[in-house]
User: Fold these one by one.
Assistant:
Number 1:
Amino acid sequence: MTGIKIIVVLLAAIWLFSNCSQHKTEKPQRAIQENQDGISLFMPGKISTNLPERDLAISPDGRHIYFTLQSYKREKSVIMRMERSEGVWSEPETASFSGVHADLEPAFSPDGSRLYFVSNRPLFDSIPKKDYDIWYVDRKGGGWGPAKNLGAPVNTEKDEFYPSVVGDGSLYFTATYEDSKGTEDIYVSRFVDGQYQTPVSLDSAINSATYEFNAYVSQDEQFMLFSSYGRSDDLGGGDLYMSVKKGTAWQPAFNLGPLMNSKGLDYCPFVSPDGKTLYFTSNRKIEEEWERATTYSDLNKILNGPQNGFDDIYQMDFRTLMDTLSSR
């Protein structure tokens, strides 16, 4: 995030949550409920459609969007790209490095010269791979070079998901290893002298005995958004949570409440490079419309558009969210 105002808001949020820990869930939830009209579908009909879409990434210069498009049963998973020219976004098309294997979860490096993603593609053409690894492509001219596996110590024989790269090159991601605190944990691999270090599971301020996954971490590592499933304050099929940093320590994560979170799965958070917009994925439905849909015409309309129970991408003003939270 950039800008003095955002820095002040973050510092206020850090003070708030470190001094009111016994109310860390209830107060943010009530605060968010006051902003009832802040969430909308992102590019309905173009990105958010009747198909499952998830995992949004926007390049640092704001000119490129990458997201994941999947089939109904998720047996096909492709990374799509769009480019903005003279204020107009192109139609989605398959990214040059995707389309053959199951690819998902794109994430830019801070300078935009590298794009990380997750794939089950084989290390060698003749050897099928059963697990998912983190891969990357580097800028080459006006496009991307060949896909490369990030390798050890980040990639293992287990699955690695949802890369998030911070300012110093360190990598946050999701995995389940022997030292995991729960079914899935959020890990960080520090980038030191040009090398990734052994991944470390984040402490109990973030990880629990259940599922923690899909973390977006700000480049200055002052805040983190992630999803968790199975906590006592979970509102449905998995909720969005937030943690801020005090000094070098992550503070206990809190649920972002019933405006952000639904009865379905809410996950894949991403904040735009300018710090203005929060994007996330959800399979939420408009309950009132589903209850009223009794005729074939009504059902056909609902099922052939966004918010039909498959994943869509949503957006909201992130600065308003932070202002609201810090004012409590």
Number 2:
Amino acid sequence: MILDYAGSSIAEIHFSALEQNLSQLRSLVGGRSILAIVKANAYGHGAVHVARFLEKSRHKIDLLGVAFVEEGVALREAGIRMPILVLTGSPSGQIPELVQHELTPVIFDLDTLSALNQEAEKRGRPISVHIKVDTGMGRLGLLPHQIFSFVEKVQTHKMIRIEGMLTHFAEADLADLSFAETQLDILKTIIAQLKDKGLSVPYCHLANSAAILHFQSASLNLVRPGLMLYGYSPLTEKMTIPLNPIMQIKARVIAVKKVPKGTPISYGRTFITQQESRIATVAIGYADGYPLSLSNRGIMIAHGTRVPVVGRVCMDMCMLDVTRVDSLLPGDWVTVIGKEGSESIWADDLAKMGNTHPYEILCGIGTRVQRQYISPDST
């Protein structure tokens, strides 16, 4: 389906597919709370629109997760009122803004703790926090032996409430879950010891999409789905539940021309026609998130037929060999990601072609690709 649109490229976001993914998620996690990850512009899908849909979902989303304060502020300014967790911490200069917009920070250092408490006292309003433990990712968080003294210091700050305890899996997407099991055991031990000391933490979480799909004992009482919401699995093995990609991308054909055998195509002359060919130039390039690595590797769908990307992908355009598609004309659309007729190509397919990951494909989709949001009742 092509909506009435006069631009160069368009991403259709289908909320009916998101609703189906939420249904599959709920069937896996039961009554556990859900922290839906909408950082990085909801993995390229549009954070504000996705958050609005999630906030009203019948499947009950409990919190939203963003990476940075400014992402949370943008959601608040768009009218999103549900709890928002800022996952990467909060620079001291942004703490007033964080508190003003009622965002929940993840903390792992004493300076942030002190600054948060001061701001809370100034505003006369307690602040809830989640404390991060580094159980093996080596990125953010307190080391396990530091947790108990840190919690004791938190408890001396009267305006701070411990709402959650979390860690981050380093490799829950692998078939071998032994290291993930070690990380889970560390967090569970910390939680149990805190409970023995009289502190029961409302939210305990580490289960990302990979763990939700194939390490369900890690789900604890809160899960953090990200990629699976948008229709993709982070696992290399075949999915055990159906997930539906919610985004389809189409690009407009700018020109089509017939060229003789031996014609070089694009920068560097990395492709030379081996026969008389029809070459289509389409309006999407690496500035729009179609990776340079798909030069002479990518595939698009033209009038229901798979056609190859030929030559080097340019900043604003790329070329297709459409010799087998006589009907394709300037002004027509080709499918970059999505389904057309009996053919389909998705972000994970492009990731394999470009030796990357669907996360990078989705998050890289640029702002020139205009998003259109299709509600379940309009499909």
